[in-house]
Write a structure and sequence with these properties.
The complex is a heterodimer. By secondary structure, chain A is α+β, with helices and mostly antiparallel strands. Chain A has two helices and nine strands. Chain A has two domains: 144 residues, Immunoglobulin-like (Sandwich); 29 residues. A two-stranded antiparallel ribbon of chain B has the order 1-2. Chain B has a single domain, classed as MFS general substrate transporter like domains (Growth Hormone, Chain: A), CATH 1.20.1250.20. The longest helix of chain B is centred in the middle third of the chain and has 41 residues. Classes of the chains: A alpha+beta, B mainly alpha.
Chain lengths: 212, 502
């Protein structure tokens, strides 16, 4: 019975999560075990440029996790997550315990099949990533794409080891020039209208009706 | 006054009254001058609405590009409707003095640059400034209503105002549909999301400029011609600005309607600003779907505001002005109740259903309001329209400041509180009273007050001696229909007619 007893806690945990997955359909973050060790290439406080810089993420199973924890792990999802300072006064980035409603980690960096051991992934910071402070989180998903474990580059309070991304502006000189040209056209048209009206005023259109 | 011509009287395409205002409203006609003015005024107003509310459906992208907070977004929303508060008043005055054709095309051309420069926005401050400047264009509402009141007779003025106003407001809904679409097309063509939304803004800007050209070249101010020509021919005496302003500001009815309009139209503007975000954030729908839902709110304007205007005219046939007032109060109050409900329902489908019902009543109330406005003053019609219109925007500013600013209330709570405020701020309609027609709770004056008494009181004896009041006299005669049928006074001859020669 002893070996079965050894295995049973993690097995029960996995069963519990599977049960949760079927019954409520929504995983709560607070129930997820932190079983992955994740590290990312950016130094704390480093500023990365969107569209140019890359992030290399490395992950592996936590050595202290009971054996067999990762039997259900099929995929690893890597996400770029907002640090609390970038969530202030921005309800669309709010952290919620229900993972289906959570908006902390809205940028998917990539997905990889879980293979055990050390894995890495290189991600080019996409051009639609906004200027903010971030950390990296990895979710371990089971066969039915339900989260069963996670790991992240920061601590529980999410205030250490954060890095910044500087977004692209999206502006272009050609747009600025086009806007200026059309604006000038608009204002000059108005001046033209007034001049035309002045000339028209000195030659009034004849009355359409006989006056009483 | 005026020259005597040998030409036979001109035949207008539509039947007209003594003011040459059309007595019927033929929607599918483009005949000069009445229906053409109608179509050009609603299309140009529509383009201003499209531009003013082009940003809200794209906020989820813009807020990431410009690093905006909830407060920044809320402030910009408030800014977008606050510029028009004074612009509407100024527009009313400009219409009284220069005519709606010039006044509206000028404003449209002056605000188009703000739309164009959205493509260069780089911060919360520039975003707010641009939304503020674009918002001025909503003053074209006043020129639309003034124009319709100049072209259409009292018996159909509610309908004309309602359709023109409603189809213009449609822009606020249409833009929620079209901007995400334009953005998606540009992005799929290869542009990056933070650039695609910028390019998208050129479309509403160019459309806006085009409508200004159409208004200038194809329309005229009044059935008999443009202000400038009419002034030269001596048919339209130059009016005094202080008198026109004083006439409107001392008329308590104008102030009451300004307040109540803030709680139908002001609410409509508020919802235009917050509804896409509300559905996106609360129900987790995607940008395109949120835009679709938000659009259905604004799109109800296709029939709901015109419906309000038509209802006002229909009710007036039997019950006169009292009917118009009762209908306005009831419809707007029901709108308030539905708004309270909207904040309470929790499922997506219930939310959409209640929102559509709410939009119908809220927008019908807007149409009903402008079934009453043309009668408040004849001399200061423009300023009264401007005050009411401006009041609408004040309502939007106040409502957004109180309930949709920062993170104090959740959007749902804000919506419910807004509903309660609608119900309270609609009550003053009970106080509107016309001596010649009565009010909601009081019958017309026992002293046999007439329409002439009311409208001629706007002119001093000296002005009447100079004949400046002629147009008001014609209007008074044409507005006798506001007594309603089945009233003892309906068929009574107009007493107390002006002793001065016509």
């Amino acid at each position: 019975m002893a070996p079965a007893l050894n295995a049973s806690p993690s097995f029960l945990v996995v069963l519990l999560f599977a049960f949760l997955g079927f019954s409520s359909g929504n995983v709560l973050f607070s129930t997820l075990p932190r079983t992955l060790v994740v590290s990312a290439s950016p130094q704390p406080g480093q500023v990365l440029k969107a569209g140019e810089d890359k992030i290399t993420v490395t992950w592996s199973l936590n050595g202290t996790a009971p054996a067999g924890t990762d039997t259900s792990y099929k995929t690893v999802q890597l996400k770029l997550c907002y640090a609390p300072v970038s969530q202030v006064d921005r309800a669309w980035r709010k952290t919620k315990d229900d993972l289906a409603k959570d908006k902390t980690c809205t940028h998917l960096m990539g997905s990889r099949p879980y293979e055990g051991g050390n894995q890495t992934y290189e991600y080019l910071v996409q051009k639609d990533v906004p200027t903010a402070s971030y950390f990296v989180r990895a979710y371990a998903l089971d066969g039915s794409k339900v989260q069963v474990g996670f790991g992240q580059t920061t601590d529980k309070a999410k205030d250490t080891n954060l890095f910044e991304v500087e977004a692209i502006t999206g502006r272009h000189a050609s747009l600025d020039i086009a806007a200026s040209c059309f604006s000038a056209f608009s204002v000059l048209s108005l001046a033209g209208f007034f001049m035309a009206e002045k000339r028209r005023g000195s030659h009034p259109t004849p009355s359409p009706v006989a006056n009483m | 006054m005026g020259t005597i011509e040998d030409d036979p009287p001109v035949k207008f395409a539509l039947p007209v009254d003594s003011d040459h205002k059309a007595t019927v409203f033929r929607l599918f006609s483009f005949d000069k001058p009445h229906m053409r003015a109608f179509h050009l005024s609603w299309i140009s107003f529509f383009s201003c609405f499209v531009s003013t509310f082009a940003a809200p459906p794209l906020i989820p992208i813009i807020r990431d590009n410009l690093n905006l907070t909830s407060t920044d977004v809320g402030n910009a929303g408030i800014a977008s409707v606050s510029g028009a508060v004074f612009a509407r008043l100024a527009m009313g005055t400009a219409c009284d003095l220069f005519g709606p054709r010039l006044a509206s095309s000028s404003l449209i051309l002056l605000t188009a640059p703000a739309v164009l420069f959205f493509s260069a926005a780089s911060s919360a401050a520039s975003f707010l400034t641009l939304r503020f400047l674009i918002g001025f264009s909503l003053a074209t509402f006043v020129s639309t209503q003034f124009w319709m009141s100049s072209m259409f007779s009292p018996s159909v003025v509610g309908t004309a105002n309602g359709v023109a106003g409603g189809w213009g407001n449609l822009g606020g809904g249409f833009t929620q549909l079209i901007m995400p679409l334009i953005y998606a097309v540009i992005r799929d063509a290869g542009a990056v999301s933070f650039t695609a939304w910028r390019i998208a803004f050129f479309i509403p800007a160019l459309f806006q400029i085009m409508t200004a050209y159409m208004v200038f070249f194809f329309a005229q101010d009044m059935p008999d011609g443009d202000f400038k020509s009419l002034k030269k021919r001596g048919e339209k005496p130059k009016d005094s600005l202080p008198s026109v302003l004083r006439g409107a500001m001392t008329n308590y009815r104008a102030w009451i309607l300004a307040l109540t309009y803030g709680y139908c139209f002001g609410v409509e503007l508020t919802v235009d600003n917050v509804i896409a975000q509300y559905f996106y954030d609360r129900f987790n729908v995607n940008l395109h779907t949120a835009g679709l839902i938000a659009a259905s709110f604004g799109m109800a304007n296709l029939f709901s505001r015109p419906g309000g205007g038509i209802l006002s005219d229909v009710v007036s046939r039997k019950f006169g002005m009292r009917g118009r007032l009762w209908t306005l109060w009831s419809v707007q109050t029901i709108g308030g109740v539905l708004c309270v409900l909207l904040g309470k329902v929790g499922s997506l489908s219930a939310s959409i259903t209640v929102m559509i019902a709410f939009s119908i009543f809220c927008q019908a109330a807007c149409g009903l309001t402008f079934g009453v406005v043309p009668f408040v003053s004849r001399r200061s019609l423009g300023v009264v329209s401007g005050m009411t219109g401006g009041g609408g925007n004040v309502g939007a500013v106040v409502t957004q400041l109180l309930f949709f600013h920062g993170s104090k209330y959740s959007s749902e709570t804000g919506i419910t509180l807004m509903g309660i405020m609608i119900i309270c701020c609609t009550l003053p309609i009970l106080l509107i009273y016309f001596p010649q027609w009565g009010g909601m709770l009081w019958a017309p004056s026992a002293k046999n007050a007439t329409e002439e008494d009311y409208y001629l009181s706007e002119w001093s004896v000296k002005e009447q001696e100079n004949g400046y009041h002629k147009a008001s006299l014609k209007f008074a005669d044409n507005s006798r229909s506001e007594r309603g049928k089945n009233s003892a006074r309906a068929t009574a001859p107009a007493q107390g007619e002006s002793p001065l020669p016509l």
